[in-house]
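tl;dr need the bound structure. longer version: we got a ligand (magnesium ion) that a collaborator sent over and nobodys looked at where it sits. i said id run it. heres the input, straight from their email, havent touched it
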Amino acid sequence: MRRACAASSRHPGLDPGSRFFSTAEEEAGPRVKSGVTRGVGRALTVGTAAFALSGCVVAVGNQSAPVAPATVSGVPAGMQYLYGSGEAAAASRQTYSALVRYVQQYQRDRTTLRRMPLQAVLAPNATLAMPTQLACTGKSAVVFDVDETVLLNTGYEYSDARGGLTYDAARWERWERSDGRATRPVPGAVEGLAALRAAGVTVVFNSNRNAATASYTEAVLNRAGLGPARHGETLFLKGDAPGGSGKDARRALIASRYCVVALVGDQLGDFSDLFNAGLKPAERRAAADSPAIVPLWGNGWFLLPNPVYGTALAGDFDDVFPNDLRWSDPGARKE
Ligand SMILES: [Mg+2]
């Protein structure tokens, strides 16, 4: 396995209670590096996917599979895409542009047509099959995740990639307490947030960064041109409500104060904790693409790309390539 195989990190935007990020899974990182077998089990899924994006060669089941082309420079492919590519900048701009148009239209409908549309936040009794939305009362707000939604953690990911490191809570906390000089706003975020504020909408952040480092997160957001962010008013962090890394309790708190016009994030958990309730990758994809959920995408729910880390990076060959979607090259030379 190439030395350049840096595993993607787990981040605070993720739900450690989900099946994707159990303690055992977090501890699987070094074992992935030293060799992978099915016997290690589910714990390898995240690491395997992360390695795939890194261009690493890993064993999946009984197959030794080159899962992605090697990168010439040794930078993990997901990082090349998110932090280095024009395509990612364009995708992010596209999302922010659609978000602003949607919210401006929502505000026009609300004020001119006297319509009171539903919130983007699901009701407590909602399910993914029946995603009932809360009624809209109060001042309009849009709720943003922070990491890889409004802010690119380029400096932290550099340290991961360069050092071949896996997620480490103490190192992440040191990053949270850093001055933010090695971050950049997501393309489109500064202009998008400014446009929303100009339309009379309050910008609220709901992040799994820790409440204990709130002043640092406020400073980083303000420095990046994304503020104002005030803890307890427009910034909600892990520890501000029950539920740990789950965001539903904080969403409910915010929705009790505002009419949440839109939710914006890079993980499905930024929209509902229901997506992290033990679904297998194929079930999760089916839920996100189901008739009940599809109407929300681009209409209250807006997703930013993140191929670097997170709940999307799961699934073995059976999860990702169903039996009816496999092709064997008839021109391949028989051994
Ligand atoms: Mg995030």
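gonna send this back to them w/ a short note. The two ends are 24 Å apart (CA to CA).
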